[in-house]
Amino acid sequence: MKASQFYIKTTREAPAEAETISHQYLARAGFIQQIAAGIFSIMPLGQRSLEKIRTIIREEMNAAGALEVTMPVVQPRSIWEESGRAETYVPPLANFRDRREREMVLAPTHEETVSMMGRYGITSYRDMPLNLYQIQTKFRDETRSRGGLLRVREFEMKDAYSFDADEEGLDASYQAMAQAYHNIFSRCGLNAVMVEADAGSIGGKDSAEFVLLADSGEDTILICDSDDCGYGANLEKAEFIKSLNPREVKAEVEKFATPGIKTIEALAEAEGVPTSKTGKVVFYTIDDEVYVVVIRGDYEVNETKVRNMMGGSEPRLATPEEVAAAGFPAGSASAVGIPSERVIADDSAVENPNLLAGANEDGYHLRNINYGRDWNSDHIGDIASAVDGQRCSRCSDGCLKQHRGIEVGHIFKLRTVYSDAMDVKYNDADGNLRPVLMGCYGIGTGRLLAAAVEANHDDRGMTLPRSIAPFEVVIVAVNIHNNDQVRDLSESLATQLEAKGVATLLDDRAEAPGAKFADADLIGIPVRVVVSPRSIQNGGVEIKHRLADPKNSTIHAFDDAIGAILNTLES
Predict the structure, then answer these.
(1) Is the pLDDT of residue 200 over 70?
(2) In order of start, what are the domains of the chain with their CATH numbers?
(3) Are residues 37 and 153 in contact, defined by beta-carbon separation less than 8 angstroms?
(4) For residue range 62-85, what is the model confidence (pLDDT) as tens digits?
């Protein structure tokens, strides 16, 4: 491919809104062009890299036995009402009406559509296992798109959906997809770690994320530091061993005045105790009802865990007006005297005795409140956020270490969430009608490319691995339009490399050599070959790997150049 016949438009300056390295470099190198918030065009260089990513994904999915399909982006809203997600999906569905006034949506994901495929085609246990996948456009009206391709509104995703007759089959499908994902990310040059995750608006029970650890990531990941453990989870899911206060005999409740004290920290300081000896209350509104959420004072509430405990209803912090209308005194509240159905409790508050808490009277608190005697809850479990340094819940020997990360893939065991709602059933060997067990597996192709840039760059540009770089070799032809020898040698090299299956860019543009070198570095082409009057005078061509020192190039005789280039590509 000659650069003069290709579309290469690089810039020195990144867009003002580009905060992440991947956004800056992909925009500067002309891989992407933003046309609205969270909506990008993919330019020719970006398209070449994404096509390589698609090829890798297809090869691994096909090798795992999945079958490719294409499902529509525009869907009738009725199928989302059938699944129960029309009003609950977050962010809300993008809705419109067609010319016949039928309600339609832009699909953010395709569980409903693939369930219809399963409902149509699966009748017997003999029809499974079945795994269908597509590489297709999605639209999610994110409230805050950021990071270029890292979080967008319109994006391309590989989403796959498995259908199995039993738990054993679902486990096998899930593990096959996990291995395929490991293979995909490895081939794309990413060291992605697999961690436990919350299923979110997709639904289901078990799920795992594949995360690239990176400071630019918006996800918080906690990983056990023990080499023998391997536990990792995102913040929404992470569990830890909660310490217990010393066991004490339950003491009598004492009410005491606390004028001016409105925070747990101030209360603990006034009493000369750690915050772990307090019961903190946070007010949340869930389905228009105000709940008292109780947790030990040294922990923080994890809203995702609260949502899951409450059956998927989204919690939000109650407003002062809502708290007052419910009759709760902010700053001096507790669960004492509150109906148990309106109390959500972390197990840390339940299991620790003699806590300090509010007296539900302004300016007063209570000593020695105890669960079961002084207050109760109908909703008890782990709703605490894990933080750096807490003990691992899996091995108990290690501690959790906090990292930032970019989610590059997500896999779910949906089980019967959609097959129950959308009547996807099969006849087992005894003729009994049973719901199909489903799984869901997603990779955002654009996000994968952006993550690869976050993991592979330097101060001169991208350093993309050969597997996903738009070109593997760039031949910089210096003075090509005025030197027949440079032109002939450059074109011969390009022809030979292309014949060997090496994607080669012949930079024959009428640009200064320095500009061509800078573009090659910015774009991230793994190997640069310079053909110039000077290199010819020195006996051949100049070859350098993108990761090598800019001054560390070597001259190779023209007859040996192809072998040297191939060897450099492999290094």
Answers:
(1) no
(2) 3-238+401-453 (3.30.930.10), 254-381 (3.90.960.10), 471-570 (3.40.50.800)
(3) yes
(4) 999 999 999 999 999 999 999 999
